[in-house]
């Protein structure tokens, strides 16, 4: 009896946590949908084109609604020992599991497609904003410094970018010395071409 009570209590607490996560995602999703610019201003820059394509706000609302319903059914079913609510709870869990397996299979099958999609999204953003948008440039500098990479593919991503047009050189990360991680002198096309630096997509 004590074991059953413990399991019941743990299930209620676990599902209450899921319920709270659902409420949080719903709140953030509604915030992003209603006032996206203020959200981006606080939590960091994202490409506006990517924001429009992915529709992050609607995704968060959908995910939050599922977690909200799941947490509520779990708490209610465990507290009242309602078989119908518990059956619905486990049915939703099963559907989520099936969806995750399907998503994993699709990800394995369409890895190249996803890479081409990201390339078509990220590279134009670099060419348009790197060197002119302070936040965007800072994010990419931090990424390249942390991953020891150069752009999404290589130094050619920065050709025709505001940074290249202004300085006529590539970011120093594209010519970093593998021994100490620093670039010596301006990062010209010849030097960047001779430097072995991995890409962010690697």
Task: Kindly summarize this structure in a few lines.
72% of the residues lie in helices and 0% in strands. It contains 9 helices and no strands.
Structure, described:
Helix content is 72%, strand content 0%. The chain has 202 residues and is mainly α. It has 2 domains: 2-109, no CATH class; 130-194, no CATH class. The longest helix is centred in the N-terminal third of the chain and has 33 residues, at 2-34. The radius of gyration is 24 Å and the shape is elongated.
Biggest β-sheet strands, sense, barrel: none
The residue fraction in helices comes out at over 70%
pLDDT averaged over residues: 81
The total strand number stands at 0
Tally of alpha and pi helices: 9
Give the structural class: mainly alpha
Would you identify the regions where 5 or more consecutive residues have pLDDT less than 50?
46-54
N-to-C span: 54 Å
Range of strand content: under 5%
**N-to-C SSE series?**
HHHHHHHHH
Work out the radius of gyration.
Answer: 24 Å
What is the total domain count? Answer: 2
Q: What gross morphology would you assign? A: elongated
Chart the SSEs and their pairings.
Elements: H1 2-34, H2 36-43, H3 48-54, H4 56-80, H5 83-109, H6 111-129, H7 134-147, H8 162-167, H9 189-194
């Amino acid at each position: 009896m004590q074991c059953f009570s413990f399991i019941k209590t743990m299930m209620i607490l676990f599902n209450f946590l899921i319920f709270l996560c659902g409420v949080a995602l719903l709140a953030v999703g509604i915030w992003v949908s209603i006032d996206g610019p203020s959200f981006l201003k606080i939590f960091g820059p994202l490409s506006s084109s990517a924001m429009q394509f992915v529709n992050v706000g609607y995704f968060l609302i959908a995910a939050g609604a599922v977690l909200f319903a799941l947490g509520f059914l779990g708490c209610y079913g465990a507290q009242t020992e309602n078989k119908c609510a518990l059956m619905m709870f486990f049915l939703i869990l099963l559907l989520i599991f099936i969806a995750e397996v399907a998503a994993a299979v699709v990800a394995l099958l369409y890895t190249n497609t996803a890479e081409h999609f990201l390339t078509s999204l990220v590279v134009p953003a670099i060419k348009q904003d790197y060197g002119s948008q302070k936040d965007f440039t800072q994010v990419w500098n931090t990424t390249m410094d942390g991953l020891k990479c150069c752009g999404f593919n290589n130094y050619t991503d920065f050709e025709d970018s505001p940074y290249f047009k202004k300085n006529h050189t590539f970011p120093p990360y594209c010519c970093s010395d593998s021994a100490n991680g620093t670039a010596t002198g301006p990062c010209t096309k010849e030097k960047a071409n001779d430097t072995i630096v991995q890409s962010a997509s690697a």
